[in-house]
Amino acid sequence: VEFAFGGLGTNAHWPIPRNPWDAKHTRVSGGSSSGAGVSLIEGSALVALGSDKAGSIRVPASMTGTVGLKVTAGRWPLEGAVPLSPTFDTLGALTRTVADAALLYEVFDAHCSGRDRRDSPEPADLTSVRLGLCETHFWDDCPGDIAAVTRQALTMAEKAGAAIVDASLPEVEEAYALFRQGSVVSSELKAFLEAELPDWIETLDPNIAFRMSGAIDIGTEEVAERRKRIDEMTKSADLRFADCDVLVSPTVPITAPKVADVADGKDYSAANLKALKNTCIANILGLCALTMPVGLDDAGIPVGLQLMAPGNAEDKLLAIALGLEQRLGTAWERLGPAPLGA
User: Fold this and answer.
1) C-alpha R_g of the chain
2) How far apart are CA 131 and CA 157, in angstroms?
């Protein structure tokens, strides 16, 4: 997606990567790293790098049945990545398995920190893991088939010894309200384009131009105030993990739409907002997060389980995900081959 500013994977300038899980209908593959998830399924890549400002790694990973890891903002340097939003720009990767994600994380993290490389995180013993279930927001309006697949995976984890505990994340309501306003990211992208690529503005993808239009009515003081509030929510959100190790939820609470169904701008905007509804919370609250495939919905499209941990708790996040993958199986074991895969 142009400037990584979209959660569905559509593109006005180039062919839209097709979701390989539907041979009959042309569906989106998720964005913004739309081609990345497809490349793993078709076998042209083992690892795909990307950036994640609101879900741009986790959404395509969820919709294509792959694993998506978003590290904590600021953990890895951003040199070489086109800036969309300095407030939220974060790097990460899509892989075929959690084990691959853990290996990549250790290699990259050692390189970026200058430390000696260690072994990848070991799978966590699920009998010592507390999975926090926050029923508000993440499960609201989630289709029954997606919710059922996600809860079935959690039931299997519970049978393996994991504790499913009630969790509270009161910051989520304000965080989502800020996301819906969109003004921080829009303002930062607008400033970048005006300074570096002014001629590009005239040719922007219409969907991106529409989203960026929200930056027109907000001043720099308001943007600064919202950044300050985001910092405050990030600090308070970390305290919510006292009684759980990770928060769990459906990654994307909609089925990957058919491309024809989001051709209209209003339909696109509505579907884009829904696709990013659950993933954007980790970005706004400064969490690290991972999605792993746990089944197929009624349309035969992959469903992802999202795990969220406090900032800079990637080792714990990956260890728990590895433990779950050992119990639930890899994507290839659980989902089988994609109809249009390799």
Assistant:
1) 19
2) 9
Give the pLDDT confidence of 99-152 residue by residue, as tens digits.
999 999 999 999 888 888 888 789 999 999 999 999 889 999 999 999 999 999
Angular region, 291: left φ>0, alpha ψ -120 to 50, beta rest: beta
Q: How confident is residue 242, by pLDDT bands cut at 50, 70 and 90?
A: very high
Name the pTM for this structure.
0.95
Per DSSP, the three-state class of 181 is helix
Pairing state of beta strands 163-166 and 130-133? parallel
CA–CA dist 150, 250 (Å, integer): 6
- The owner of tokens 């089944």 is 295
Peptide bond into 32 cis (omega under 30): yes
Give 162-177 as a DSSP string: -EEEE---TTHHHHHH
Three-state secondary structure of 291-305: EEEEEECCCCCEEEE
Q: Which amino acid is at 333?
A: E
DSSP string for residues in 108-135: HHHHHHTPPP-PPPPPP-GGG-EEEE--
Which class for 25: exposed (0-12), middle (13-18), buried (19 or more C-beta within 10 A)? middle
- The two structure tokens encoding residue 24: 């009959």
| Encoded tokens for 72 | 């904590």
Q: How many helices (H) and strands (E) does the chain have?
A: 12, 8
